[in-house]
Amino acid sequence: MTDDSASPSIDGNTVVAKSLSHLGVTHMFGVVGIPVTSLATRAMSLGIRFIAFHNEQSAGYAASAYGYLTGKPGILLTVSGPGCVHGLAGLSNAWANTWPMVMISGSCDQKDAGRGDFQELDQIEAVKAFSKLSEKAKDVREIPDCVSRVLDRAGSGRPGGCYLDLPSDVLRQRIGESEADEIVARVGKLNEHVTEARASEIESAVRILRKAERPLIVFGKGAAYSRAEDEIKKLVELTGIPFLPTPMGKGLLPDTHELSATAARSLAIGKCDVALVIGARLNWLLHFGEAPKWSKDVSFILVDVSEEEIALRKPHLGIVGDAKRVVGLLNREIKDDPFCLGKGNPWVEAISKKAKENGEKMELQLVKDVVPFNFLTPMRIIRDAILAVEGPSPVVVSEGANTMDVGRSVLVQKEPRTRLDAGTWGTMGVGLGYCIAAAVACPDRLVVAVEGDSGFGFSAMEVETLVRYDLSVVVIVFNNGGVYGGDRRSPEEISGPYKEDPAPTSFVPNAGYHKLIEAFGGKGYIVETPDELKSALSESFAARKPAVVNVIIDPFAGAESGRLQHKN
């Protein structure tokens, strides 16, 4: 042990910061206050960028999305008690979407636990439902190992959220700096956890695909997280099998690819006899893999990093492993004895024909300039503006009911991990947090949020955060006066002592959302015509500065929306 008699001492805050820096953390998100303000300051001094939010909920959503975009756990820092509870929104979002994240919260002095201390809460118990691993550092010397364990577990196996509890007395506790550096240095770098698929499983999968008459490849955000785009591209090109991405799998292969079945989704999933599902769960987004949406006779080959997921879904064949590695093995097996459906294959022709028909129907609707705006006209203009951006494709953040549903069908993804939306949980309020995460994780890309006014309202105050950090984010708000479009009540429903109150779905009509960002020095636009929208997008995209574009929509243009609706 190093002699610390002549060594300056440091506190627990600095030990945490040193541990995070040593383990490769470069960004943190959060809201500071007692007892973690010093932790954020020390982290910044060690080269970790700290993005300070107004609300832990948005900061947590940012941390979860950062984990997805970078493949490294996103770090959320909160105060104790209510701050930890607010942060649960982000931790649970990471759990639901299986993204790596670590929430770090301060807590009360250990000696005062159970006595009603300031913001006291049993935070280990509070996070239990959403945390893969929860650790409490009970002494300053335990901090480096605790930090290492939660970071390692967050990214291992099926990714998810972990929690680190830091009592106030541990953060104040002092230790000689040389001893601290020695303890931190002993903590190993994070390990890569790899489960290799068995050769027999790979051979079986290829044999099943080879014999299939109507095969389909489905891939999701798990494949995107795995960076499997090159391997999936090669698989599709080798075999000629049509593919269907889930909403956040869009862009792994361009939406414009000739084998994309997105515009023929109902036919593809309803008629395929074998579905190779890569990094996507057979949950509600894929109709649980059940009839009547799917054929009752379909055979699923499920590739997932989680053995538990495969056991739950009971596919015809399950392969446990990382999507990128497994698809690479499939390609190698196919290359030794190649097969390809070819453009003249009846199944490929049927998918292509249906996709073309549905695409043409959609374009007939999109080509019309409807004023007052419906959802389709501004969405077409936004699509064309995004496609015209030179260089790396913008990251699109899509949130809302009608806005997200229409955007999923109209907006075009050409590159991987360029679409963030409400995800597995259908979470509203993620928009601004996701924007900030994308701007930080992908600084070379413009970030474009396409938000409903209801979704925007959850985290609208974070436009100040955009301005404060001068982030390249343009937020487009579809303003139709409320949830689904304002007051949709029938005359019979407007009764009772509070009948003069606004409907539960109503907001202030024509609200000036663009003025909110102007209050902080950002640029705001209000648009009601195609030319005004084109001008606002051209100017804001070129400037790459924080902006809000307030798009006034006909309040009667929308419809109630819950589950994702796929009409094609």
TrEMBL record:
Molecular function GO labels: 2-hydroxyacyl-CoA lyase activity; metal ion binding
Domain Thiamine pyrophosphate enzyme central residue range list: 202-327
CDD domains: TPP_BZL_OCoD_HPCL, TPP_PYR_POX_like
Gene3D superfamilies in the record: 3.40.50.970, TPP-binding domain
Domain of life: Eukaryota
Residues annotated as transmembrane: none
Keyword annotations of the record: Lyase, Magnesium, Metal-binding, Thiamine pyrophosphate
InterPro entries per UniProt: DHS-like_NAD/FAD-binding_dom, HACL1-like, THDP-binding, Thiamin_PyroP_enz_cen_dom, Thiamin_PyroP_enz_TPP-bd_dom, TPP-bd_CS, TPP_enzyme_TPP-bd
PANTHER family associated with the record: 2-HYDROXYACYL-COA LYASE, 2-HYDROXYACYL-COA LYASE 1
UniProt subunit comment: Homotetramer.
Family: Belongs to the TPP enzyme family.
Protein's UniProt name: 2-hydroxyacyl-CoA lyase
Organism: Eruca vesicaria subsp. sativa
